[in-house]
């Protein structure tokens, strides 16, 4: 660097969460005048497109720094200590503290528990064992530093954690009064951390905490007088430092030591179990109906999406038998090659007429319908506006499309309007569940369509849980709202109330023609068996003919909510999905197990299906549940909640 003056550029991006600013990313550079633009742009890019989320606000500060006020330091030397377990890593920290002249390492290490959730670092007087940060919550933030760059170094807007950590550790190690530093990441999946000092250098330890733990933080170890303490804080926060000769990479690719390949998998499993998030499957030995047999025992099934109890309907059974006799089973190819039969076409015509659209296209599952359709409708440069509680298949479709994903607050049409205004785009789509799969509430369709129309955006609605459930005759979301207008892309499944399997999209002929030609999940997968198509067809016919199933289901919902109310559990659901929020993952399991012991099969839904700490029972009703069964179930839930 030759110019007399340099510029410091600092970026801080944040987003709003429940009204408060949440930090997304921050970074700083110290660069020469001609490079200011390019680095500033790189930092803006980095702050605006961070994996932690879209920034709502970005702060960029640029100011001049006199070269004579900058201290140049040589980077600490780097060494890596491989340890097999995190306990051994903790031993390494102890050893390091002893080497640093600290006789009571255990006492110092106890402070690591307090660094949890601190924004900055702790400044710890190692002799008196007291914390010296003026603001305990904020901690000390070491800033105003960068590495020296050579001509031709890449700029890169991604964070280089490795280099940035060495720059910081070098500044800290050279601070008056600081004898060392301990740093553990708060990322639950990242267990490598470091200890450092001027004498020892930068010592990476490959495992410093238990996998899956969010407990991390940074301690600056201080030894000195009160006056030196002020000096140290001033140096850490205000002194401009440029670090020379920062090593570029952990190691050359060729020396990279290969990890034990099953290590991460094993750890992930242990962590799931420790956090009560491990899932095991129950095995059902009978047909899917309001009662099922598990391990030879009878259970009332209140967890199934087979809301109208159509899956084992005689019409479906005979459709399967007859079509098997006629077609055998496998379809032998994708729809565009040899896998299209008269029954495939008939099912598409049927669903189009049931949903009052020009045409329809069938996909192998509802999951594939969403993923394939969204990724066909939008691409890089386009925008998807998506409800924050949308089904995982919608989220995955958005991700695969590479379009910009803007999530809006759950079923909040004002927020949707706001997000559309804030994110102008040429082509965009707004997508929502009709009935939300874990909360059971209903999309405000008329306003949703108004907004899509006003803004020339495609509307897409997922009817997985609305068809057969809401609307006077079970036709779903449009019938429920008595909405005349059509949704551009009306997606649904045969796998829920229709008692079959597969997904579909209904809409205008041009939409369906487009999807048939572009949707990869349709094109590159063998089509479902004609037998499945025949079963789905029979399922829709049952739904159309036996409206009493829909009416009974709707009655059961009302009845069950009233029963729950008797135990102080207030749920106002109009759909077959009745969420009983419990919160804690372990409690939710306890309640679900209690119900199981009493002959009721109800799932406990936990993270990642719902947010952490929002674990719940997801009661799913069927038209064939009796009043006595519902009454008993409400009573058991009431008891279980009192017990916990
Ligand atoms: C179940 C579900 C899907 C996926 O349908 P499958 O046929 O089970 O793959 C899609 N969207 C929603 C809202 C769902 O509940």
Automatic annotation (TrEMBL):
It comes from the Bacteria. It is an enzyme of class 6 (ligase). Keywords: Acyltransferase, ATP-binding, Biotin biosynthesis, Ligase, Magnesium, Nucleotide-binding, Pyridoxal phosphate, Transferase. Pathway: Metabolic intermediate metabolism; pimeloyl-CoA biosynthesis; pimeloyl-CoA from pimelate: step 1/1; Cofactor biosynthesis; biotin biosynthesis. Residues 298-635 form the Aminotransferase class I/classII large domain. Its EC number is 6.2.1.14. Its cofactor is Mg(2+); pyridoxal 5'-phosphate. The modification N6-(pyridoxal phosphate)lysine is found at residue 496. CDD domains: KBL_like. Homodimer. Catalyzes the transformation of pimelate into pimeloyl-CoA with concomitant hydrolysis of ATP to AMP. HAMAP family: BioW. This is 6-carboxyhexanoate--CoA ligase. It comes from [Ruminococcus] torques. The lineage of its organism: Bacteria, Bacillati, Bacillota, Clostridia, Lachnospirales.
């Amino acid at each position: 660097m030759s110019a007399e003056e340099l510029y410091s550029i600092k970026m801080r991006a944040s987003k709003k969460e429940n009204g408060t600013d949440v930090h997304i990313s921050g970074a700083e550079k110290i660069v020469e005048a001609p490079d200011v633009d390019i680095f500033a742009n790189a930092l803006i890019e980095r702050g605006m497109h961070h994996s932690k989320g879209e920034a709502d606000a970005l702060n960029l500060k640029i100011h001049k720094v006199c070269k004579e006020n900058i201290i140049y330091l040589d980077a600490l030397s780097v060494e890596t200590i491989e340890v097999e377990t995190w306990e051994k890593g903790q031993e390494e920290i102890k050893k390091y503290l002893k080497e640093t002249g600290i006789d009571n390492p255990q006492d110092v290490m106890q402070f690591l528990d307090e660094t949890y959730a601190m924004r900055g670092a702790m400044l710890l007087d190692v002799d008196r064992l007291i914390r010296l940060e003026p603001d305990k919550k904020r901690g000390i933030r070491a800033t105003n530093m960068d590495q020296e760059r050579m001509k031709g170094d890449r700029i890169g807007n991604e964070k280089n954690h490795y280099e940035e950590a060495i720059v910081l550790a070098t500044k800290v190690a050279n601070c008056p009064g600081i004898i060392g530093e301990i740093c553990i990441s708060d990322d639950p999946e990242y267990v490598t951390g470091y200890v450092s000092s001027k004498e020892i250098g930068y010592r990476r330890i490959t495992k410093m905490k238990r996998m899956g733990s969010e407990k991390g933080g940074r301690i600056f170890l201080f030894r000195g007088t009160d006056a030196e303490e002020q000096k140290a804080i001033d140096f850490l926060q205000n002194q401009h430092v440029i670090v020379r000769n920062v090593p570029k990479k952990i190691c050359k690719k060729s020396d990279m030591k290969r990890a034990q390949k099953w290590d991460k998998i094993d750890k992930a499993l242990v962590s799931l179990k420790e956090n009560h998030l491990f899932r095991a499957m129950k095995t059902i030995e009978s047909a899917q109906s309001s009662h099922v047999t598990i391990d030879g025992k009878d259970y009332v099934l209140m967890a199934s999406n087979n809301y109208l109890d159509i899956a084992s309907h005689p019409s479906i059974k005979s459709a399967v038998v007859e079509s098997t006799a006629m077609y055998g089973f496998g379809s032998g190819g994708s729809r565009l090659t040899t896998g299209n039969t008269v029954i495939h076409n008939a099912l598409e015509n049927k669903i189009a007429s049931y949903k009052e659209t020009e045409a329809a296209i069938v996909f192998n599952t509802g999951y594939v319908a969403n993923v394939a359709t969204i990724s066909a409708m939008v691409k890089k440069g386009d925008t998807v506006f998506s409800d924050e509680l949308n089904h995982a298949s919608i989220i995955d479709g958005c991700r695969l499309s590479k379009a910009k994903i803007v999530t809006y607050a759950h079923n909040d049409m004002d927020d949707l309007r706001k997000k559309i205004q804030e994110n102008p785009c040429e082509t965009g789509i707004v997508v929502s569940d009709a009935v939300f799969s874990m909360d059971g509430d209903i999309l405000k369709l008329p306003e949703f369509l108004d907004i899509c129309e006003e803004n020339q955006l495609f509307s897409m609605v997922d009817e997985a849980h609305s068809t057969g459930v809401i609307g006077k005759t079970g036709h779903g979301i449009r019938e429920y709202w008595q909405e005349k207008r059509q949704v551009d892309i009306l997606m649904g499944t045969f796998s829920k109330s229709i008692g079959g399997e597969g997904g579909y999209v209904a809409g205008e002929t041009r939409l369906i023609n487009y999807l048939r030609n572009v949707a990869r999940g349709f094109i590159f997968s063998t089509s479902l068996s004609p037998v499945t198509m025949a079963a789905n067809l029979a399922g829709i016919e049952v739904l159309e003919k036996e409206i009493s199933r829909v009416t009974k289901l709707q009655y059961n919902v009302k009845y069950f909510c009233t029963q729950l109310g008797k135990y102080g559990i207030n749920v106002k659901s109009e759909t077959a999905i009745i969420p009983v929020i419990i919160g804690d993952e372990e409690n939710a399991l306890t309640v679900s197990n209690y119900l199981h012991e009493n002959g009721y099969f109800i799932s406990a839904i936990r993270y990642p299906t719902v947010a952490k700490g929002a674990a719940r029972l997801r009661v799913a009703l069927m038209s064939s549940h009796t009043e006595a069964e519902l009454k008993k179930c409400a009573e058991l839930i009431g008891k279980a909640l009192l017990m916990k």
